[in-house]
Write a structure and sequence with these properties.
By secondary structure, the protein is mainly alpha-helical. The chain has ten helices and no strands. It has two domains: 132 residues; 106 residues, no CATH class. α8 runs antiparallel to α9. It is flat and about 60 Å long.
């Protein structure tokens, strides 16, 4: 079981790097079956997966397992892009479109995780005795991977999830950019959204670290500080709902990630 967790964490690390860190919004929009971006993405996912799997004597097995993961990205991302284009053509209601985008994102991520679980299980079923983990002199590589996975989950993936969730339920809709906005208004909303992403990532990372070091009381201080330092906006009710829901989701995700990471660290 412990070996499975270590291998699964390596797969998750590869997934985070390839699906979030190495991709821009423009690159994601161009991932279609007819474009080179999708195939490059699938190849990179397969290559990185093979790197974390490689061990002398199991070259064929590692290539097949990595190919399964890369092919699943090719299939899922291609289908998601195709469905996204159809959504944009057929769905004119922005609320329904936001709902569809959130559902598509969740289904896509769940499918990727299921494939990673299946790939890790099959690989260890045949290569458990041959696959070796490596350790640095003072700190386990697996612990470093775990810390990377936990900390990065608190950043871009959490930002995307919270953003799509708020759009799905029309929370903070006054902050959403519209085609009728002036250039100054669009720029103002863009700055607010960017600031929100940075603040959210920082607060989740601080919450994550506070759990790892055993000082959960820091989380209360962060929540109290954020409740005081709010954005000033004429639409106070909408802004309050936006800050409150976003804050609860943000800290909730960071707490769950922190406790799961801490549990895995104790297992290692």
């Amino acid at each position: 079981m412990l070996l499975f967790i270590k291998l699964f964490l390596r797969f998750i690390a590869v997934h985070l790097v390839c699906d979030f860190m190495l991709q821009t919004d423009k690159f994601c929009e161009n991932k279609r079956f007819s474009s080179w971006q999708l195939y490059i993405h699938a190849f990179i996912v397969g290559l990185f997966s093979w790197i974390v799997l490689y061990s002398p004597g199991i070259l064929l097995e590692s290539v097949l397992c990595a190919s399964l993961i890369g092919a699943s990205h090719l299939l899922f991302d291609g289908v998601k892009s195709m469905l996204a284009n159809r959504f944009k053509e057929k769905i004119t209601d922005n609320d329904k479109l936001a709902d569809a985008q959130f559902n598509a994102f969740c289904v896509d991520q769940v499918l990727h995780i299921i494939v990673l679980i299946i790939a890790a299980s099959i690989f260890l079923l045949y290569c458990k005795d041959d696959w070796k983990t490596c350790d640095l002199e003072f700190y386990s590589v697996d612990k470093l991977i775990l810390l990377f996975v936990g900390s990065y989950l608190c950043c871009k993936p959490s930002n995307i999830t919270i953003k799509l969730f708020l759009e799905k339920y029309k929370i903070g809709s006054s902050l959403a950019k519209s085609d009728t906005d002036s250039s100054e208004e669009s720029e103002r909303k863009f700055r607010i959204q960017n600031a929100g992403h940075i603040i959210g990532s920082l607060e989740r990372l601080l919450c994550f670290v506070s759990i790892l070091v055993g000082h959960i009381d820091i989380i209360g201080f962060l929540i109290a500080a954020k409740s005081i330092l709010r954005f000033k906006d004429n639409n106070a009710e909408t802004q309050t709902e936006y800050v409150l829901v976003g804050t609860l989701m943000s800290f909730g995700m960071a707490i769950v990630i922190g406790f799961l990471t801490n549990k895995c660290l104790m297992m290692f």
